[in-house]
Amino acid sequence: MRIWKRKGLHLCLCTILMCTMLITPSNTSTVIAAVPEKLLSENTLGSLFPLTTEIIHTGATYTWLTEGTHATDPAIISTDNSGAPDMSDGINGPDGNYSNNSTWDDNAVSTGTLIYDLQAVYKVSTVKVWADTATNSSMKKFEVLASIDGLTYNSVGVQENQNAANSGFASVALTIKPLVYARYVKVIMHKDTPVFNMRLGEVAVFGDALEQQALLSNNFLRASGPYNTSTPKLPTNATYQWVTEQPFVTQGDLITTDNESLNDGAGGIVDLIDGSSVEMTADTIVNSAWSSQGKFGTVIFNLNDMYQVGKIDVWTKADSSKYMDGYEVQVSTDGVNYTSLGYTANTNNRTANAMVNTISYGVSGRNAKFVKIIMHNANNSQQLTIGEIAIWGWKLYDNNPSQQNPMPEQVELRVDLKNYSTLYLDWSSYNHVINNTNKYAVYIENADFTTTTGLTPKTTLNTGWIGQVGKYVSYFALQPETTYYIAVTPFQASGVERKDVTTVKLTTPSVLGGEQVGDIFSINDAPFGSGNHYVNHGDPGEQNNLQSKLKLLREIGGVNKNRWSDHSNYTKKEYGKFGVNFHMFYHESSTVAADNTNGAWTFSTYNEPDNPSNFTTPTVAATSIMNNHNSMKAIDNRNLLVEPAIMGVDTGSLNWLDQLYNSDGQNGALVKTYFDVMDVHPYVKYSDTPVTGLDSGTPEKLISKIADLKGVMSSHGDAAKPIVFTELGWSTYTGGGGFLKLVDRTTQRNYLARAYMHAIAGGIKSVHWYGFQDFGETATQIEHNFGLIDWDAVPKPSYYGYYTMVRVLHDASYLGPVANLSNPYYGYKFWDENKNRYVTSLWDASWQTTSSTSHTATITTSDAGVTIVGIDGSHTYLAATTGSVNVPLTGAPIFIYSNHGVSVASVN
């Protein structure tokens, strides 16, 4: 069962600077040309839609979404209760029998969210919504998300309602560019908050038919079976290769048993595409080594052209000793920058004692030339046995046209933001063959434009560059809270550029973000090491180590910022290539403009000024902070000063903070204006009073630490100030005697996930994990063992925990703590609009890696079953029995995916 896939933001990206790399050009790429639209949503003809309207009878139906942050206003549902469904009856009010009303309440937030099921996949190009424009009734805007499987949605556009007041039930149209392939279309309609009501008249989806999906992965077609000679297959000549690099290294025997020279009855075809899905002979399968619990099998398919992925088949053995519990799919257009489509859990029973198929689906608008599949052998499975992998989908364009366009078509592109500074452009469906295009220019301006005449491109992607071949590029660094207009222009082989453009508009978020949970993810990483304890890698080892770190940061995908003191433009640009900004130390005003240009907009004067080793009096600190704030704001008011980074949230540090506020003699009335963001290092120390029943040093102590910090801030009238943690972590050292408890690598991973979730629940804007890499290899040295990766850049369990946490929570909205839980049991609830489902975390804070037993939570649910992703990388599907499932709880958090909210009935 698929549980989630990535939406708007491409997580693994190249930057424009990387596009100077040359690669062998592909003979494909481009956008689907415009096609005549047809009505897909089965709206009744004769009123809104003339009888001459071109239609495709899809059998489409819609349902109102009643779950999540955009659940439909109950009044809208209750007024859609007689005759034909109001949103597709072809009649547009004002009669209440043909329209739906929200609750009458001014200054209330109200949404109506419907999901159209078109019953099959179509090309979707336009969505229209009709809404009343009366003085007291208005729809402000609507959003559209599209899905192939109904499990994972992708945002494809937002349209503001610009109709004049009192112009009747007027339509608002969103043209989806590039158009997408979708079966399910989710439309979220937002009431204009100040008005009393939102009355909706009709929703319609337009597009065109789509051919049957076909095999893309070049599987051999046999006389019978799932891949028989009647199976549609495109001549992609696709190949695959096993991945042997970090972080998901393929277990070695999977590669050595993939022997195409064996007689598989297909003339020696490599095992994953030999067409043998259920056979179990050595000639047709690959096997990991025995005792490969928790190991990976990672394979990358090269499809040799751009496609929309439809379905993916992964055939593996399921029995008591062999079981793949799930896999992740990533897609790429250039073979360098991958976007996660999400995890799929294996729902097949282990008692099958046979080869079973675990199916997943592509994501609308996420095109692929390369498809990476990361298979996970269950933690209690001795061996991973794989029989066949098949990738299905649709071609995006004709790469062998009878003639070429005399002038290239405009480039339609998808624009995504990772954060305030990193922009991703994707025009992978653009048909460069029919348009005779071999070069592109990227324009990014602060004012709208219809022609590029007189403008200078931000970059030009020449023939053979990664961006030109992959039709995918990133740009770094945008400015926060700024509106941009973006266009990509094509050049014909003759050198002629099509200069007229239709721009895409976007506005970057604030520096701190906060619109989604994923804005919290940051790290501490000294690019080339730091401090007396750091062990240098030598020359050129240190530069090679930096590149290894950056690649592993890109694999995580959701890390937004790194905290470091070096104002070198080189380091900021290197991290910027991988979508990572910098939080800097403020040294002098002369560096700020350059720092801004390279993505740094938050600064700090101090690092632990209350630390006895470098103690600064609160009065002196207040003066320095004030001066730096005035200087920094004079350069650009969007710069944020983040202070004072005290060394803890305990009695001594909070007393220092209290004195800082009081240093103005006005209870902080002036001091609180000297800085924009509160910064603390809330390490959970041995000296802290532990949470009742838990060990000293457990992350649950953060709950009271956050409350204590907010109490001090509130007492000085500073309760509204945002909070960040620029350091927080646990070391896997073995020496003892330090300020932190000893934790093993598994416990470090568990604490990391729990700490981040407590911070999310506490409203913390950003948490910089300390640190990304171990400073050395001495087991007893505390500073040598804080990292998510070791000194050799090999991931530790905490790296995989961070990776999983980002995948699960990045696009989620926080809802609140799980009810009916008390210490030592904890959990939080989230909603993910793209997954269209709830995510509920649970764990037992009293459990340790030495615990011999685990407790069990009984979960009540109205779903047929729930899917669970463990912070340990495991995947589990649990079928419900009489409305409940039993979930084992340990210190390792689990994430439960459900269509409806779940509740904890009991824990034993």
UniProtKB/TrEMBL annotation:
<protein>
    <recommendedName>
        <fullName>F5/8 type C domain-containing protein</fullName>
    </recommendedName>
</protein>
<feature type="domain" description="F5/8 type C">
    <location>
        <begin position="243"/>
        <end position="394"/>
    </location>
</feature>
<dbReference type="InterPro" id="IPR008979">
    <property type="entry name" value="Galactose-bd-like_sf"/>
</dbReference>
<dbReference type="InterPro" id="IPR000421">
    <property type="entry name" value="FA58C"/>
</dbReference>
<keyword id="KW-0732">Signal</keyword>
<dbReference type="Pfam" id="PF00754">
    <property type="entry name" value="F5_F8_type_C"/>
</dbReference>
<feature type="domain" description="F5/8 type C">
    <location>
        <begin position="58"/>
        <end position="208"/>
    </location>
</feature>
<feature type="signal peptide">
    <location>
        <begin position="1"/>
        <end position="28"/>
    </location>
</feature>
<dbReference type="InterPro" id="IPR051923">
    <property type="entry name" value="Glycosyl_Hydrolase_39"/>
</dbReference>
<dbReference type="InterPro" id="IPR017853">
    <property type="entry name" value="GH"/>
</dbReference>
